Structures are given as structure tokens and as C-alpha cells.
Amino acid sequence: MTASIDAAQQLVADLPATAAVWCSGLRKRYRRQTAVDGVSFTVGRGEVLGLLGPNGAGKTTVIKMLLGLVRPDAGEVLLLGRPGADPRARARVGYLPELFRYQPWLTATEVLMLHTRLARITVPAEEQRQCLAMVGLADRAGDRVGSFSKGMQQRVGLAVALVARPELVILDEPTSALDPLGRADVRDLLLELKERQVAVILNSHLIGEVERVCDRVVILDKGRVAADGTLAELLGQRELRMRLDGVTPEARERLAAAGRLTNQGDAYTVTLPPDHDDAHVPDLVADLAGLGVRIHSVEPGRISLEERLLGILRGDQA
Ligand SMILES: Nc1ncnc2c1ncn2[C@@H]1O[C@H](COP(=O)(O)OP(=O)(O)OP(=O)(O)O)[C@@H](O)[C@H]1O
Ligand SMILES: [Mg+2]
């Protein structure tokens, strides 16, 4: 008997950790408009996933289906290993909606209190205060949210998404109203969540922001997944772009030893191999100088996520 319990426990222990989000074949149609058409993806624990795509691509509809706020026509959702509709899963998820308004007569502190009571989670008052401080509202905690600016309202929304110690946070355009400082704060906040193994889905049109914090990206276009991968997979290999003259055959050979070489006039580009170590760049420069090459510029480069996104949406080949 004990042996079979041990075996069962071992079996459970050997199961892979459940993903923060798993969804498969999500579909939603509004009258004649297909908003989402066969979307599947996974978000691992502690992973930050960027959800990108043009206006109307279906990002918010996907998020609402994950959270059970919109009923899918087809498809399945697991949140933190439980069916999406299970309230025990929902209680561990923080959500900042795209459009929201809190009761304008409540203070920021009261909004958080109301939210934790509705979520049936006890969060000490001090921790709630810290949460408001984290989004930069320490000084305004006692003011009514009806008197808040747009960006301040968005900060309250962030505090609401974070206050109940979520294991998964879904943010639908969290920084659209924030000033540059506020955006930088959100970036730090996301990195802190990642450190604590909290999974995040970030929907944002600010691609630079996504590129800085996300591990993986799902690009939606017309309701379908147009691309899905880690930043390294989507952006490909890195390059070294140089402007050189006096390139002798020996120097050309040295350049080609560093990676795939192309050149046009005085512009030389070396596509670096995946295992390239940046520490080798100064060696290459020193060797080229030693071979008598005149080096005008050396610039490490990689295609940006924005260029890649536009390429995918315009239907260019990778
Ligand atoms: N409640 C609704 N009723 C009818 N159509 C809807 C509804 N919600 C969304 N849609 C339609 O579904 C499509 C996807 O909308 P969705 O809000 O998911 O896009 P999005 O990718 O979040 O866009 P944005 O970047 O503008 O926020 C759009 O064509 C939209 O008009
Ligand atoms: Mg949206």
C-alpha cells in the first residue's frame, strides 16, 4: 500500500511544472467579424510574454477569453494548471484591463481594499500601502480616484493587478497613459515580477518596451498567430557592421573567420555565429588594424523587434 502511495507521489513529483497559461484553438466570432481564429500558446512560470499586433488583431479578445470574460466559440484554457473558469485559478491572476474606471468616490486605498475583499484574499494594510508606493502613488493614497489624472488612474489599475500576490499578471496596455518615468517604473516592476517567478502577459504597442522585458513574443494578425518565438528566434543572429578601407585579401580572410561576410563598397557586415562571444570583437579590430586596415566605425547590430514585426505584418519572408 505504502509502496503504491510512494509511487503515486513520485509520479506527481515527476510531472512537469504546470504552465502559467495554456490555451489551444481559441476562436471567437462577433456577428460576421472573426476576431480570433485558432490561437494557441503557452506561457511558462516566471516567463514574460509579449502579445503584439495591430489594432483589431484580437489581442484584447484573447486576453478576455483567457480570463473567462468572453466566452470562446471554440478552444480551451488552463490557467495555473486549472480550467480557466475555476475561481481558484482566477484568484491567483492579476489583471489590468485595457479600458477601466474605478468608483470615482473611493480613495486609492479603498479601491485596493475593495479589490482584495472581492478576491477574498487577506493582504495586510501595510502591504497594500507598499503596493501603492510601488506604482508611485504613495502621496495620493488617500485621494479619491475620481480626481486622478489618466496616468494616475492607470497606476491604480496596476496596483489592483498586483495587490493580491498573483502568480500570473495580465496587463492589457499598462503604459498607454504613462509618462516616460512611469514607463521605466513599469519596466522595473516587470523585471521584479520575473525574478519572483510571476508569469506576465504584456500587451503593448510600445515595441521597445516589449523588446526590453519579454522573453517570448506572440504576434497576432487578423485573429491568427502570425509568429511565436523567443526574441533570439524572432530576431535571428547578431551582426557586426563596419566601415573599413584598405581591406587586403588577408584582412578579408580574417573577417570571414569571424562569421559570414558581406560587403558593399566600404560597408562590411559580419553575421556572427550563435555562440559568438562579444569579447572577441576587440581581437578582431586589433587584428584588422595590425593588417593595415583603416577602421572608420564598428557597430554591433541586430534587427529590431519593430523591423521584424513590420516585416511579418507586411508579409515579408523571414
Ligand atoms: N464586443 C465586441 N463586439 C463586436 N466586435 C468586437 C467586440 N470586441 C471586439 N470586437 C472586434 O474584434 C476584433 C478584435 O478586437 P480586439 O479588441 O481584440 O483587438 P486588439 O488586438 O486588442 O486591438 P487594439 O490594439 O486596438 O486594442 C475587432 O475587429 C473588433 O471590432
Ligand atoms: Mg486591445
Primary descriptors:
318 residues; alpha/beta; Rossmann fold; Alpha-Beta Plaits; 12 helices; 37% helix; binds adenosine-5'-triphosphate
Task: Characterise the protein shown here.
It is a single chain. The chain is of the alpha/beta class and 318 residues long. Among the domains are: 19-92 and 166-233, Rossmann fold, CATH 3.40.50; 237-302, Alpha-Beta Plaits. The chain has twelve helices and 14 strands. The strands form three sheets. It has a six-stranded mixed β-sheet, with helices on both faces. Helix 7 (180-195) links the parallel strand 7 and strand 8. Helix 5 crosses helix 6 (150-162). The mean pLDDT is 89. The chain binds adenosine-5'-triphosphate and magnesium ion. Adenosine-5'-triphosphate binds next to strand 2 and helix 2. InterPro entries: AAA+_ATPase, ABC_transporter-like_ATP-bd, ABC_transporter-like_CS, P-loop_NTPase. Pfam families: ABC_tran (PF00005). Residues 21-247 form the ABC transporter domain. It comes from Virgisporangium ochraceum. Belongs to the ABC transporter superfamily.
